[in-house]
């Protein structure tokens, strides 16, 4: 958990759903992008929806030496009014090192910093949490 939350997070529509689930806005370290849907919006800027399998790592270790996970869920983030996008290396596994949001004028820039697979940067008018679905507990 970050000591000080990035103020851009408050611009993400419906961000409260993620905060309520985790108790804070996560950095998405080791989360995995499992699905991406692109939409052309004739007459408007395109949009893209990312499904991210997220969780919280605990300090507890299981019998095999792996850290135990909690708060596992799928989060759908939609980027609307995409002005610019770089999208490369989407693969069978797309693990995020960090998900970073930054204010760029009136837009929001999001960087998917990759551990494995997908590297992406999106500059969009709006970011929306479409949903959060708990998976395992």
Automatic annotation (TrEMBL):
<dbReference type="Pfam" id="PF15594">
    <property type="entry name" value="Imm50"/>
</dbReference>
<protein>
    <recommendedName>
        <fullName>Immunity protein 50</fullName>
    </recommendedName>
</protein>
<dbReference type="InterPro" id="IPR028957">
    <property type="entry name" value="Imm50"/>
</dbReference>
């Amino acid at each position: 958990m970050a000591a000080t939350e990035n103020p851009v997070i408050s611009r993400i529509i419906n961000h409260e759903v993620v905060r309520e689930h985790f108790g804070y806005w996560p950095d998405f370290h080791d989360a995995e992008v499992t699905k991406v849907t692109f939409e052309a919006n004739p007459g408007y800027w395109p949009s893209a929806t990312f499904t991210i399998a997220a969780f919280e790592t605990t300090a507890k270790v299981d019998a095999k030496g792996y850290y135990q996970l909690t708060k596992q869920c799928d989060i759908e983030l939609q980027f609307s009014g995409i002005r610019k996008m770089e999208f490369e290396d989407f693969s069978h596994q797309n693990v995020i090192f960090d998900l970073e949001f930054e204010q760029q004028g009136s837009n929001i820039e999001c960087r998917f910093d990759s551990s494995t697979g997908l590297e992406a940067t999106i500059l969009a008018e709006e970011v929306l949490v479409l949903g959060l679905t708990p998976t395992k507990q």
